[in-house]
Specification:
Structural class: alpha+beta
Radius of gyration: 24 Å
Distance between the termini: 69 Å
Number of domains: 2
Number of helices: 2
Helix content: 10-25%
Shape: globular
Largest sheet: 5 strands, antiparallel
Number of strands: 17
C-alpha cells in the first residue's frame, strides 16, 4: 500500500515538472520579440534584462522564412546600435549575418554567422566595427578594435598598450580581414607591426602632445612575473 502511494506521488511530481517546463517554454515563445530583416530573415529574442542605459537579451533565434536555423543562449545580445544586425546576401542562397552582443567588461563583440542553403556553415566572433566606413583606394573598409585597453603609469611616464586597429573589406565572398591594410595602418601608428591581437605588455610612451612615442628604445616591454 505504501509502495503504491509512493509511486503515485512520484508520478504526480514528474507530471507536474513536465507541465512546468512545458508552460515555461510556451511562455518564452509567447514573449519573444521579432526583428524582421531582409530576404525573409527574422530574429526572435527573449529573456531581456534592462540595465538602464542598455538592454540585453540572452535568448536568440534566427529564422529564414519558416525555418529556424540557429538558437543561442550563451550570450547577451545587444540591439542598442543601429548599425547592427548586419545581413548581406552574397549569392541567392548564401548570406552573412552579424549580431552584436555585450561582452562586458570587455568591448562589445559580434556573432558572425555564414548561412548557406539554410545551414549554418560558420559561427565565429568578430569585433564591432566603427560607425563610419572608409574609402581607401576605392575599397570600402570597415575597422575597429577587438578589445578595450587601458594604459599604465611607470616612473612618471604614461604608457598606452598595443591595441591594433583591424580592417575588414567587403568582397563578393563576404567580409574578409584586410591583412595588408591592417599591417600598414598599425605600422604608421606604432612604428612597427606587433601582430593582430591586443598586447597589454607592450607600452608606448605618450608625449606632451598626447601622441605615441614610437621610438624603439622608448617602447617598454613588460616581463612576465
Amino acid at each position: 500500500m505504501k509502495f503504491s502511494f509512493c509511486i503515485a506521488i512520484l508520478f504526480a511530481f514528474v507530471l507536474n515538472s513536465c507541465h512546468q517546463a512545458h508552460t515555461t517554454n510556451n511562455e518564452l515563445s509567447d514573449t519573444l520579440k521579432h526583428i524582421n530583416l531582409k530576404y525573409g530573415f527574422k530574429l526572435k529574442i527573449g529573456k531581456g534584462e534592462d540595465f538602464g542605459n542598455f538592454k540585453t537579451y540572452s535568448y536568440l533565434e534566427v529564422w529564414h522564412n519558416n525555418a529556424k536555423l540557429f538558437t543561442d543562449t550563451s550570450k547577451e545580445y545587444d540591439f542598442g546600435e543601429k548599425q547592427y544586425p548586419i545581413l548581406n546576401q552574397l549569392k541567392p542562397n548564401v548570406f552573412e549575418l552579424l549580431v552584436e552582443f555585450n561582452d562586458r567588461p570587455s568591448k562589445n563583440k559580434v556573432t558572425f554567422l555564414r548561412i548557406e542553403n539554410d545551414k549554418i556553415v560558420k559561427n565565429d566572433t568578430l569585433l564591432t566595427f566603427n560607425n563610419k566606413t572608409e574609402n581607401i583606394n576605392g575599397i570600402i573598409e570597415y575597422s575597429g578594435i577587438l578589445d578595450g585597453g587601458e594604459g599604465w603609469d611607470e616612473n612618471g611616464i604614461s604608457y598606452a598598450q598595443y591595441n591594433p586597429t583591424l580592417y575588414y573589406k567587403f568582397t563578393p565572398d563576404g567580409f574578409k580581414l584586410d591583412s595588408a591594410l591592417t599591417i600598414l595602418k598599425n605600422k604608421e601608428k606604432y612604428g612597427r607591426f606587433n601582430g593582430f591581437k591586443y598586447d597589454e605588455k607592450i607600452g608606448y610612451p605618450i608625449d606632451k602632445n598626447n601622441k605615441l612615442d614610437t621610438v624603439e628604445k622608448h617602447v617598454l616591454r613588460k616581463r612576465d612575473n
